[in-house]
Amino acid sequence: MKNTIAVLAVSSLLAFSACKKGENTTLSDKTETSQTEKFIVDSVKVSDSSKIADSLTIGFTSKLLVFPTLKDKQLLDSIYFQNKGIKDFSKKGLQAFLDNEKNKYFNSVKSDSKDWLSDISYAQKWYTNTHMNLVSTDNDYMHIGYVWSSYEGGAHDNYGFSERVFDLKNNKKLELKDITSMPKAQLEAILMKNINKVHSGTTDNKGEVKNSDMLLVEVIPATDNFYFDQKNLYFHYSPYEITAFAAGDIVIPVSWEELKGTLNAEFKERMKIK
Description:
By secondary structure, this protein is α+β, with helices and mostly antiparallel strands. The chain is built from six helices and twelve strands. 24% of the residues lie in helices and 30% in strands. The strands form three sheets. The chain has a seven-stranded mixed beta sheet with strand order 1-2-3-4-5-6-7. A three-stranded antiparallel beta sheet has the order 10-11-12, with no helix packed on it.
């Protein structure tokens, strides 16, 4: 049941966050600096399917954000880190990239299926979905959530998340060291202590199952898959990364109070952390 809920949650997230093709979004209502007020985001999307045989249909859906005002090549490469080989970051260029990725996926499955297609005994629909979602641009920090999901046979779908925060003032991806100087081992001890603060929603016949009861690791790593708001720094873990698939994705908060005395001065000032 948890697996089904998790997949439905991802599907709902993708449907909610997808922008209409060609729609522009101006992020001026919730920004504070003149630079951010001029910041514009657009998007491109491809969604298509192909029938390989009576027993197999494949689908491809992908959405990329477009940033007409961002010109720094290194920053753009970092933003599109999951999409290697992009040379043209314009809307037209990114649309062409997605069309090419779709064709490569369809052709690859069609070619490989010659070896195993006869083994599929009932009608299936395989798919691959990837989406970029703009979460916030507070204080010139741009948070993008990357979501992927896929099914290519087996017991269940797979899905995962990547979180990245970009410093638009300094044209770079924000690193953990730009936020806190806390030693890694000390931060990982806090993550272990806070593992159950955000409930996964997993249940069994006895009721709710704690995140800590589904851990697959002895140490929860402080990864670069983080984001933050006015209250906490959050670390996001995809299924199987630190817990069993039944737990779904796990978010662990670390409060600014717990990081007190280790926060980077510039970061603390920009985020107005007391």
